[in-house]
Amino acid sequence: HNFKRPNLVGDLQKGERYINMDYMFFSSMQTASMLQVINISYDIACQWSKNLWTRMSAFPQQYHLDHNMKTIMFLVPKFHLPAHILSCQTTYSFNFIKGVRRTDGEAPERGWADINPIAMRQDNGAMVSQQTVSWIWKTRGVLDNMEYGLQDCEYT
Questions:
Q1: Hey, which of 1, 24, 34, 118 has its CA 20 to 30 A from 148?
Q2: 3-class SS of residue 107
Q3: How much is the pTM?
C-alpha cells in the first residue's frame, strides 16, 4: 500500500515544521469524512501528534477534523522506530495494531528516493524543481494516485 492522500505532499521551505505538516494533514482530511479509521505513518508521529488537536484550533473551521468520531492511530514506521526511546517503540509500533502488524509504514518514504537528488540541488529555481519533481512523480504514477485519491476504491 503506497497511497498518498490528496493535498498531503508539500514543498517545505526549510525542514518539517509542525505548521506545514499540520496544514497538509488537515487539508488532506477535508476529503476524508467517510473514513472511520485513519492510521498515520510519520517518522516523528510521537512528537507531532502531541497537541495536534490544540494546534488544529488555530486553523479556520473548514480544516477542523471531528477526531472524536474517528479511530486515529499515530504510528512510527518500522525503520525509524529503533532510533526512538522505548516508550515510543511500544506506543507507536505497527506491530501492536490489529490489521497492520506486517505493514512497515515506510511507504511515504519510498517516494522520496528519486526526489532527494533534485531537492538538494541549489542551481534549480523553485519552479524548475517543482516541475521536475512533478514529472518524476507522474512517471511513477504517484500524482495520479494523489489527484484521484481513493475515489475508485470501494468502501465496505
A1: 118
A2: helix
A3: 0.70
